[in-house]
Amino acid sequence: KKQKISRRMLRAVVPRLASSLKAPLASRLPAVATWTARGLATKLPEEVVADHAWRQTNHIWSSQELETIEKTHHVPVTVTDRVVNTLMRTLYHGFNFITGYRAEDPSVSSVAWRLIILESVAGVPGFVAAGMRHFYSLRALKRDHGFIYTFLEEAENERMHLLVCLKMFHASAATRFLVLAAQLTMGPFLTVLYAFHPPAVHRFVGYLEETAVETYGNLIAKAQTPGTQLYDAWTDLPAPAIAKTYWKLPDDASWIDTLKHICADEAHHRDVNHTHASLPSDAENPFIADHMKDFDRAALERVQSALLGGAAAGHAEKPKVARH
Prior knowledge:
This protein has 13 helices and two strands. By secondary structure, it is mainly alpha-helical.
């Protein structure tokens, strides 16, 4: 049923919304702005920039959705599936050995090293896929059917995971070296592989995300189990400010709550990449509707915030009329 908005309501709402959004940097955001020769240079607090309503809109997980996240495994069917699955399992066990990660009772130091490297690597494939599809669309003069946006959002989501982890863990010189080495290795490798066989890259990422879900699920379980190293270290840790903004977490959210949202993101990337690896090259993006719902949610929240903020400001600045 279509909702009809009267002209009177529009005349009342639109000016208030416009006035609330007119000077967002000066009034609505806690920013420090200075004029330069090139224009207005504004420094925004990172917890403000973490709000993705104005760019790639991330999904905000409900408590019900978080409870349904589970480990799954795509059974290899093709030769490519078997090759990349074997490669991923080899890398997974090798990574466990290098970082000293023991799933039965992981130490905080092994987890810190593991998550920083994992998230720095996980942010590469999405950007490679989006870039390669972008150039192919230009070169072939064809539509991309909406996948560029999906993979850009995935890359940005993984980068946010990394930034959140860096709020909790220190990146040593050795960690930074491994991050650099991994990027210099994975970037060219995935680019060349995507040029020749895109489904192989997406299947590889699908298996990579399976290991990520396995890792985060284990960390969450151990952090909630008395007697483990993670339980002693993480029980009372609050969520970083940028995590609260990015996933719209409550003020009293914990680090464990943050991990649950990261795990849900990884499960979604797993499903997206396994799905895309099995789709025909000219298929439509089946996740477009989900992006639209996420954007509509973010836009509605932004409008409501602007209206409420404008109404509050108007009420506070209403001049007092003296009675005679």
